[in-house]
UniProtKB/TrEMBL annotation:
GO terms for biological process: hydrogen peroxide catabolic process; response to oxidative stress. This is Catalase. The active site is at H72, N145. Decomposes hydrogen peroxide into water and oxygen; serves to protect cells from the toxic effects of hydrogen peroxide. Residues 14-28, 526-541 have a biased composition (Polar residues). It comes from the Bacteria. It is an enzyme of class 1 (oxidoreductase). Keywords: Heme, Hydrogen peroxide, Iron, Metal-binding, Oxidoreductase, Peroxidase. One of its GO terms (molecular function) is metal ion binding. Heme binds at R69, R109, F158, R355, Y359, R366. InterPro entries: Catalase (IPR018028), Catalase_AS (IPR024708), Catalase_clade2 (IPR024712), Catalase_clade2_helical (IPR043156), Catalase_core (IPR011614), Catalase_haem_BS (IPR002226), Catalase_immune_responsive (IPR010582), Catalase_large_C (IPR041399).
Amino acid sequence: MKNLQDEKQRDLLQNKSDGTNKFLTTDQGVRINDDNNSLKAGERGPSLLEDFILREKITHFDHERIPERIVHARGSGAHGFFEVTNPIPELTKAGFLKEAGLKTPVFVRFSTVAGFRGSTDLARDVRGFAVKFYTQEGIYDLVGNNVPVFFIQDASKFPDLIHAVKPEPHNEIPQAASAHDTFWDFISLMPESMHMIMWAMSDRAIPRSYRMMEGFGVHTFRLINEANESVFVKFHWKPKLGTHAVVWDEALKISGKNPDFHRQDLWEAIDMGNFPEWELGVQIIPQADEHKYEFDLLDPTKIVPEELVPVKIIGRMVLNKNPDNFFAETEQVAFHPGHVVPGIDFTNDPLLQGRLFSYTDTQLSRLGSPNFHEIPINRSVAPVHNNQRDGHMRQEINKGRVSYHPNSLGGGCPFQAKIEEGGFSSFNERVDAHKVRERSESFADHFGQAKLFFNSQTPTEKSHIVKALRFELGKVETAAIRVRMLGLLSQVDMQLAEKVAEGLGTSVPPILETPINKGVSPENEMGNQEPRSIESSVKSSDALSMIKNPTNTPTIASRKVAILCADGVSAASVMNMKNILLKEDAKGFVIAKNLGSVVTDEGGAIPVDFSLLTTSSVLFDAVYIPHSEGLNDLAKNDDVLEFLNDAYKHCKVIGADGQAIGVLSETPFASKLNNDDSGIILYSDPATETFALDFINAMASHRIWEREENLYN
Ligand code: HDE
């Protein structure tokens, strides 16, 4: 099997253009002599219609926007490769999974769901995690999210869900936020969303970086082997840098300080050679186990706990190249869960089945033509031959008189592939049923796994969920919606509901008044079933917690440290820290009152990366104040004290050596400083290696959660 790693880049090369050392021309290739002045009747006269150069330029400009994605409009993409580490030929005939070491090019797009294209990266939201594999057998898209379940069980509710979460239609407020009445109105009437709500209110919805998110295929899919035997499969992406989040107050501030935070983080990491990496894992469920569990494998509001079916790692994905052009690649890429290759197939998950219709349909209005597969980023590296013809913007020039099958005039070509020749064939599933608009009884449990998720969280994480719900429901104006939500939350965990209620200044309604116990009430029109709670056979799962997550091996790779400096700073201290950070693939940035440079104690100059005006503590993972003789200007600067206060509040590591320790006694948190805080690293000797090592070890724990008010202590 050929190694395809660079094949997509070679393919894209044919469409790349670079104007360096070239003449400026019209779209027709005519060289332009004057691009600054339109053609006029006299220098002060009217413009002339015949000015084809002006007309072409303005016309193109007038049409340069396309509709943004109805969901996942805001996103960032990158190129890379997928490499098989543990092939599974016994389970699937998909060529790109069959051979150890085989590399397949990929393009990945991460996104938020609700916000418009220009919205903030740090919205509380699910993140899209869509991977396009350019395999030798055609395009395979794994169009997943960073959360393994979904809000709804049936595709017919998707437009309702999205209408509810998007800005309200009368005033288009709020942008990229679920904290408003229509969203919670809908959710409070959809008990099936409760598992997903737990994830969305957890810190999973405010990741530190796209590079520090897990990814999930969500639905159960099928793998099919050469013998046409099938197993069920759940897909998982496990990030090498661990799964980490920011805190909510930080997210809100980042949204103002740098709404491109995630986009820039991904871009810079790749630019600097810190290539993001994930392992691809599969949970395999034999056909015979289809009905073995207390949940239905076809229900997208359920996970398969890793305690029941472990995740087997089969490969890794590395993102190593930024796009050359955002529009051509990241905006025009068209994913579709229906893009599968032989060896991978769908299940009857009713959400997945609806998606199989939606994704091509949406490209028709977004990209404007059924020829969107010809756009370079969407083009397969496997040969494409068929009898599809024409349409807007067709690129391919199909030769010959035959565009139908069967034909004799074209010698029967292009000809069908037998299964042994790689022809796709669907899993031969027997379906024998009545045509009904119903939901399976096996989908009726809406609380069992919401409880499992909540019970798997650490006290810190539970506390964050309570605070998130207090924030979101606190923004809801209609009291009845809040009460309905408290009723649903009480079905997940009474203490959770009570703590949320306390923050809302109200109380949890008696169980009988909540829609769940009314069964099919006017408010709960979900058809034939009465929602219920089936206890999960797994009581707690570390994989569901970010803090206990087994993917979190301590590392500070690619993390950013703010080094607060003023004139007189110790050159030795700054260099000591910078060097140790570099050894760990992290980076220190010098921040001072003004740009330019600071003068060191040795009389040298250290260039300043950011002024206090242009950056903020929320854009860094930790803060260091290097030694300087006497208390320098830092201790008197309000911006510095705010910088440190935010870092403290957001549970970040703060370090100071030598006389810089004095700066901390000026901060609002000075009275809280004590020896038990493992994130405050103070060394009276300046520039020691032990200090820097202690600092980076503390940073590797990500955040010092003990500092926070914890509602579950
Ligand atoms: Fe999507 N979704 N979706 N979705 N989805 C789209 O397709 C849709 C769902 C996901 O970076 C749209 O090309 C329906 C689940 C991602 O370009 C659209 C339903 C999951 C992306 C669409 C779902 C996803 C999309 C909008 C319920 C996780 C961004 C633009 C039946 C497994 C891909 C587009 C990118 C995008 C429809 C539910 C993930 C409208 C109807 C569940 C990551 O076709």
